Amino acid sequence: MKNSLYIWDSHVLYAAWEETTALHSLYAASILISVDRPAFLYLSDGTSIEFTGVFLPPNRVYREMAKQTHVMNLYIDPDSELFRRIEGMMKGGIQTFDSGKIPNLEELAKKAMLEETTDEEVYEILRYIVETVFGSIFPYKEGRSLDPRVMTVVNHLHSLALIPHPQEIKLEKLAKLVNLSEDRFRHLFKETLFISVRKYILNLRLKAAARNMPKSVNLTEAAHIAGFSDSAHFSRTFRATYGHRPSVVFRSSKRTRIRSIK
Question: Per the database record, which ranges form the HTH araC/xylS-type domain (predicted)?
Answer without folding.
Answer: 167-252
